[in-house]
Amino acid sequence: MLVCSVIPPKGTQEKLWCEVKSFASNQKPRFSVPFPDAKI
Q1: Cβ neighbours, 10 Å, residue 21
Q2: Which of 4, 12, 22, 30 might form a disulfide with 8, Cβ 3.0–4.6 angstroms?
């Protein structure tokens, strides 16, 4: 499931940003994600 409630960085497409966050969370579950709404 993609988490898209965070505002993407300037110049970044929202869909792509959601996919990147989802990929990072799935590949590195112990990685400290600097987003308060991040779901691991």
Answers
A1: 20
A2: 12
